[in-house]
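Bench log. Compound arrived from synthesis this morning; before running ITC I wanted a structural hypothesis for how 3-methyl-2-oxobutanoic acid sits in the protein. Inputs:
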Amino acid sequence: RSKRTSVNDIKALHRVRPIVSLTAYTAPMAAMIDPHVDFLLVGDSLGMVLYGFETTLPVTLDMMIAHGAAVVRGSKRAMVVVDMPFGSYQESPAQAFRNAARVLAETGANAVKMEGGEEMAETIRHLTERGVPVLGHVGLTPQFVNSFGGYRTQGKTLAEARKVKDDAAAVAAAGAFAIVLEGTMEPLAREISEGSPVPIIGIGASPHCDGQILVTEDMLGLFNEFVPRHVKRFAELGAEVSKAVAAYAEEVKARSFPGPEHTFRPKA
Ligand code: KIV
Ligand code: NA
């Protein structure tokens, strides 16, 4: 059994080579992705991608724990990070620790991710000092959809740019081992990456980030509710699924499936 990637391994990649990450929600997808990434993120985007919610806000801690445990079971070498869902950490550092400890204990994951900047710094310090590695998440933070009034790229105004920069700096200073920077204008994203003491993992940010992450279903063409500009389709698996299912339906109606090779009969 080979050793799993650790937060120190991730930090050691900073300014050596880009860090590779994708989301995973299930054991089989985790197993397919595992050989190719440095860490797997069990993102609360599963609320939209798997459960059909309109935002990530209805996702519960129990859902994250169930999917987190599945991803740990399905993978063996990539580090596993689990998103803390809305309402499970914003109340206080004590609430955040209690729930993050459950995530690590009940899933076997190596770290948690939480959204927020300067306002979350105290909580991030509280957790990292007590054995819970934290991946930060600043810029476009989907759990703030109601405060933002939608999903808007951040850093368009000077005041917004200043805020994203201050947020990234505060989260790094609080002890986060790396930071996801989402939906943030260039060249701000590049500037933040170049100045950051910890790796900046971009999504809708900059090729100059210290790593990249995408939602796996987005890049595979398996989630078509909306396709944001930052997504590159590396495959069109959704179209493949439709084709396969249509062929199955035809064969069932024509009684050409199952064929003799799929049926069980006594040997003559
Ligand atoms: O929930 C998620 O999938 C995420 C990534 C997009 C960073 O937070
Ligand atoms: Na998320």
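What the model suggests: The chain has one domain: 7-236. The mean pLDDT is 97.
ITC booked for Thursday regardless.
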